[in-house]
């Protein structure tokens, strides 16, 4: 099977797995990461096929999302074998996937893995990042904001993680793309607190 067709098959496979996710890890997150990764790969001289493939697969086996992570990975590897990927390519894809997640604090070795880590982080900031944060928070029963005990609120997540992400990017291309997304998040938080602090004594 030619590579373009293999990538289309991956898209279909990932659609069946993530189409019902309501935690911000839905099919379109995978699609944005895969396609943004491909774009960054061209700019950075990386392998576009390998980068896009890692993008499609990067959240398969995430412990937050799968009850049986090892089974999900084994199943996806079987699928990649069936559509004709070589064993060493499959291993390379999942080696990169294991190291992408921010929460694990690791970094992929390959340029293609680093690019997908960048694309995943770009999708966690900006307007989409804001939307995903509150979707994730809602799905995990987190409060929007709780001034007296902010530890577990979604707004706190911006300070714990999201506002720091632009400093952790690997590629120049992603750093460039991150600037306006980062600024938008800061504007959002300014507006959020301005509205939060607005006096409302006249409301009955
Ligand atoms: P990764 O898989 O790269 O480690 P996460 O799964 O932690 O990333 O984050 C995925 C999405 O979920 C991001 O949009 C992130 O903002 C959101 N998210 C993760 N943890 C929290 C949290 N504690 N509160 C609100 N949103 C969160
Ligand atoms: Ni992701």
UniProtKB/TrEMBL annotation:
Q: Which SMART domains match?
A: HDc (SM00471)
One matching Pfam family, short form?
A: HD
Which parts of the sequence belong to the HD/PDEase domain? 22-134
PANTHER family per record: HD_PDEASE DOMAIN-CONTAINING PROTEIN, SUPERFAMILY HYDROLASE, PUTATIVE (AFU_ORTHOLOGUE AFUA_1G03035)-RELATED
Protein name in UniProt: HD/PDEase domain-containing protein
- Protein species of origin: Terribacillus halophilus
